[in-house]
Amino acid sequence: MASGIHGRRLFVSPGLDLVVVHFGSQVVPPAVPVAPPVQAFLRIGTHLAGLG
């Protein structure tokens, strides 16, 4: 997963044939660690692929 400034994220899963682009705005200061939403993206891809 790639992360950009101000909350942008790019997630690519070739196995699920899935690309998720998340555009966001910075809600918290950069010093506060933010948990990446990888698990959420994987669950979305699994659901869309009919695997879960």
Question: Can you walk through the features of this model?
Answer:
This protein is 21% helix and 23% strand. It has 52 residues and is α+β, with helices and mostly antiparallel strands. The chain has one domain. Strands 1-2-3 form a three-stranded antiparallel beta sheet, with helices on one face. The longest helix has 11 residues, at 38-48. The model has no long low-confidence stretch (mean pLDDT 80).
User: What oligomeric arrangement do these chains adopt?
Assistant: single chain
Sketch the major β-sheet: 3 strands, antiparallel
Helix run count: 1
Tell me the series of helices and strands, N- to C-terminal.
EEEH
In round numbers, the mean pLDDT is 80
Helix content: 10-25%
What is the global morphology?
elongated
Structural class by SSE content: alpha+beta
Low-confidence stretches: none
Structural domain tally: 1
Radius of gyration: 12 Å
Range of strand content:
15-25%
State the distance separating the first and last CA atoms.
22 Å
In what order do the strands lie side by side in the largest sheet? 1-2-3
Strand element count:
3
Q: Secondary structure elements and their pairing?
A:
Elements (H helix, E strand, L loop, with lengths): L1 E2 L5 E5 L4 E5 L15 H11 L4
Antiparallel strand pairs: 1-2, 2-3
Structure keywords:
52 residues; alpha+beta; 1 helix; three-stranded antiparallel sheet; 21% helix
